[in-house]
């Protein structure tokens, strides 16, 4: 559906793409965080906040008729890089459960804080629905 951009002589990437080429209707989400649809946190567990955040992204994409395989970019903001790295196995499982085995271009940035004090992760998404 989209073209993964990966130079032939580069080492394979684990769980993300270096680049994606796509044509179609673009869909952008705001920064999604790990609270429910009533804007209430149900957990302070990092992996569970990631799970809720990814579900929120999928729900917003669906409003435009997009699906997880239409994702071309995810930008992750985390408040603790070590907590993220320590939770990779659980994050990977949550990702596969919700997004599947589709790996868009991604970036991850550690930030001092997010606007919502209980938020441990915030993710912005870009999707392209093919014409």
Low-confidence region ranges: none
The chain-level structural class is: alpha+beta
**Annotation, overall tally of beta strands:** 7
Strand content: 25-35%
Radius of gyration, taken over Cα atoms and rounded to an integer in Å: 15 Å
Oligomeric status of the shown chains?
single chain
Q: What is the number of helical segments per DSSP (H or I, 4+ residues)?
A: 3
Order of helices and strands: EEEEHEHHEE
Helix content: 25-40%
Largest sheet: 5 strands, mixed
Distance between the termini: 10 Å
Give the arrangement of secondary structure elements:
Layout (H helix, E strand, L loop, with lengths): L2 E2 L15 E2 L2 E5 L3 E2 L12 H18 L7 E8 L2 H6 L1 H11 L6 E6 L10 E10 L1
Parallel strand pairs: 5-6
Antiparallel strand pairs: 1-2, 3-7, 4-7, 5-7
Helix pairs in contact: 1-3
Structure in words:
The protein is α+β, with helices and mostly antiparallel strands and 131 residues long. The chain has helices spanning 46-63, 81-86, 88-98, and strands at residues 3-4, 20-21, 24-28, 32-33, 71-78, 105-110, 121-130. The chain is built from three helices and seven strands. Helix 1 (46-63) packs parallel to helix 3 (88-98). The model has no long low-confidence stretch (mean pLDDT 96).
